[in-house]
């Protein structure tokens, strides 16, 4: 049955396999079965949040095992509850990866479960509290808290953060369980965080693993009033200030991993003695970041960020950060925006704060427009609802690994779907799928004479009044000194015009452009135009350099289902691409003259 409702389901949060979850998220259902995504959620109320918390708690109380989806490599494993010994028996190593981080994905699920139980306990569910503390106490049975590679890492940080938060709010704990959890926390600090910090100071590192480990270790040390507290707090403050300074220079790892880092940073800032001063210092950057993330979401689906770089639908940590920022700075606009985020997609740690936000009247939404972001540009018409149109363009300008070599890559969002898209993830297993997710056929920036981009050196030229422009020349290696590669995008109502300037290359150089349609969409080529359709709406794609053909449609062997339209041009040229939204899913292609394209 088609689901176009505007309700917030109290369905418990869960992660599924990439092959099913990505499709289900794209279609708007955690379990699939819908031909069109739900959209335009109403603002949730406190009773909605309470219902979500209780529903998740019911599932957590009934569970006897915990399932973990390793969607990056296509594995799904399960572990009996409680996880009171450190798991050591995992599948064979992933080819090309010496030690896959199996424990961190387990840590995510455990943290989600514990926050679910803790939230229910805050609502007066004593059974949830009675289950939470024995599970935390079970950590005292772990042989070590180091990450898979044998030193402190993300699993260490995740467990440290959970212990810090729950030990500082210990209502309902049994004395013996509390003592065991406290013992685990002290041992984690002394045997894992302490040696790691002495061997690998992280204060100047912007790498998310090192920063997260430091921040969460500092948080736990402060809660325990440990001898390491002052030293770790000082290092954490220095690291966070370094991150803030780097943001002024454009530092980013994309929405997904910036959100993951800030999820942990905000938890530390909430409890640290240094928190009030740093929250004030970070106010402008954090509010700008929250607005930036909102601008990069899909119209009608605030839970889906534009798939630029490693921005995966499974990772919604950034939404929990927006909840926290809206509360800290009493930002009515961001509170109004995040209250339309589907509750079943919100991390459990954010639900108690969401409950507080929901107690206030919903104010106006933030204005939407054309913006420059740390690693992207965006423009959107009409605002946030599904009828709006959003175009995001990659503009990576730092060399962080979770960003792809995709400068100028365009994503088109409308009607609760990404119509022009890319995989939005990086497969960790070596092979065709990994090659595809990182390669040029997953991105629509020009490939010049067989040369894809190899550097993240986009140069922003314009981002105003529905016009985006970017110079991509320095993203390529081996081009002639006279070469110039530029992409412009104009959004006007239901029309998108794209101009690619390719200058200073050899007259026989072949330029390929790859357009990847969104998940679940059907392609056709009619009268020289390509047509993408979901049986409700359509998007037409045409070019100024001649008609397109169905022979241009291919499926890369690493694709999980999407087709790619590959079009070629030769030598220096100015090429126009034109996209027309068709709200009736008709079969009459646009009649666009060259002068009309240029007038856009």
Descriptive key words:
alpha+beta, 8-stranded antiparallel beta sheet, disordered N terminus, 5-stranded antiparallel beta sheet, globular, 36% helix, 21 strands, 600 residues, single chain
Distinct helical segment count? 16
Unreliable stretches covering 5 or more consecutive residues: 1-34
**Cα distance, first to last residue?**
40 Å
Major β-sheet profile: 8 strands, antiparallel
Written description of the protein model:
There is one protein chain. By secondary structure, this protein is an alpha+beta fold. The protein has an eight-stranded antiparallel beta sheet with strand order 11-12-13-14-21-18-17-16. Helix 9 runs antiparallel to helix 10 and helix 9 crosses helix 12. The protein has 16 helices and 21 strands. The longest helix is centred in the first third of the chain and has 25 residues. Helices cover about 35% and strands about 20% of the residues.
Outline of this structure?
By secondary structure, the protein is α+β, with helices and mostly antiparallel strands. It has 16 helices and 21 strands.
Question: How are the SSEs placed, and which strands pair?
Answer:
Elements: H1 18-27, H2 46-62, E1 65-70, E2 75-80, H3 102-122, H4 126-137, H5 154-167, H6 175-199, H7 208-224, H8 229-248, H9 254-271, H10 275-281, H11 283-295, E3 297-298, E4 301-305, H12 317-328, H13 332-338, H14 351-357, E5 370-372, E6 376-381, E7 389-394, E8 410-414, E9 417-420, H15 432-438, E10 447-448, E11 459-464, E12 467-471, E13 484-492, E14 495-503, E15 510-516, E16 522-526, E17 529-533, E18 538-543, E19 553-554, E20 564-570, E21 573-582, H16 594-599
Antiparallel strand pairs: 1-2, 3-4, 5-6, 6-7, 7-8, 8-9, 10-15, 11-12, 12-13, 13-14, 14-21, 15-20, 16-17, 17-18, 18-21, 19-20
Helix pairs in contact: 2-3, 2-14, 3-4, 3-5, 4-6, 5-6, 5-7, 6-7, 7-8, 7-9, 9-10, 9-12, 11-12, 12-13, 12-14
């Amino acid at each position: 049955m088609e689901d176009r409702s505007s309700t917030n389901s109290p369905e418990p949060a869960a992660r599924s396999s990439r092959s099913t979850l990505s499709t289900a998220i794209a279609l708007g259902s955690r379990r699939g079965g819908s031909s069109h995504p739900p959209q335009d959620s109403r603002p949730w109320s406190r009773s909605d949040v309470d219902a979500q918390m209780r529903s998740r708690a019911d599932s957590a109380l009934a569970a006897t095992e915990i399932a973990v989806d390793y969607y990056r490599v296509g594995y799904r494993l399960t572990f009996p509850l409680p996880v009171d010994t450190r798991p050591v028996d995992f599948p064979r190593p992933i080819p090309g990866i010496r030690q896959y981080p199996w424990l961190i994905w387990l840590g995510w699920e455990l943290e989600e479960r514990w926050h679910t139980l803790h939230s229910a306990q805050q609502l007066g569910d004593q059974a949830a509290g009675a289950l939470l503390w024995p599970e935390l106490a079970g950590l005292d049975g772990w042989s070590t808290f180091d990450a898979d590679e044998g030193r402190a890492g993300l699993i260490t940080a995740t467990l440290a953060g959970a212990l810090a938060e729950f030990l500082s709010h210990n209502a309902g704990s049994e004395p013996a369980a509390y003592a065991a959890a406290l013992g685990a926390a002290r041992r984690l600090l002394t045997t894992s965080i302490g040696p790691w910090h002495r061997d690998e100071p992280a204060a100047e590192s912007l790498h998310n693993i090192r920063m997260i480990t430091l921040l969460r270790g500092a948080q736990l040390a402060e809660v325990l009033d440990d001898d390491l507290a002052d030293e770790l707090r000082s290092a954490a403050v220095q690291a966070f200030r370094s991150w803030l300074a780097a943001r002024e220079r454009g530092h980013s790892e994309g929405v997904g991993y910036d959100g993951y880092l800030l999820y942990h940073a905000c938890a530390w800032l909430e409890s640290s003695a240094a928190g009030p001063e740093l929250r004030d210092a970070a106010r402008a950057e954090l509010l700008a970041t929250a607005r930036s993330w909102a601008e990069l979401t899909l119209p009608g689906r605030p839970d889906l960020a534009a798939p630029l770089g490693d921005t995966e639908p499974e990772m919604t940590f950034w939404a929990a950060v927006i909840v926290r920022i809206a509360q800290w700075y009493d930002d009515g606009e961001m509170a109004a925006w995040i209250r339309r985020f589907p509750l079943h997609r919100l991390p459990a740690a954010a639900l108690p704060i969401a409950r507080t936000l929901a107690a206030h009247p919903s104010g106006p939404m933030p204005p939407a427009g054309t913006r420059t972001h740390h690693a992207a540009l965006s423009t959107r018409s009409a605002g946030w609802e599904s009828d709006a149109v959003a175009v995001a363009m990659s503009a990576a300008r730092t060399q962080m690994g979770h960003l792809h070599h995709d400068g100028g890559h365009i994503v088109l969002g409308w009607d609760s779907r990404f119509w022009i898209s890319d995989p939005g993830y990086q497969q960790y297993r070596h092979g065709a799928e990994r090659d595809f997710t990182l390669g040029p056929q997953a991105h629509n920036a020009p490939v010049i004479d067989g040369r894809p981009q190899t550097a993240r050196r986009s140069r922003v030229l314009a981002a105003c009044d529905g016009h985006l422009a970017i110079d991509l020349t320095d993203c390529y290696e081996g081009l002639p000194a006279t070469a110039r590669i530029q992409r412009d995008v104009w959004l006007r109502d239901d029309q998108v015009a794209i101009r690619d300037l390719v200058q200073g290359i050899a007259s026989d150089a072949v330029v390929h452009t790859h357009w990847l349609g969104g998940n679940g969409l059907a392609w056709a080529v009619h009268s020289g135009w390509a047509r993408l359709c979901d049986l409700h709406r359509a998007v037409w794609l045409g070019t100024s350099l001649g008609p397109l053909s169905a022979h241009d449609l291919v499926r890369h062997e690493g694709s999980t289902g999407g087709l790619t339209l590959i079009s070629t041009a030769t030598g220096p040229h100015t090429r126009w691409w034109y996209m027309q939204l068709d709200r009736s899913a008709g079969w009459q292609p646009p009649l666009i003259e060259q002068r009309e394209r240029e007038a856009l």
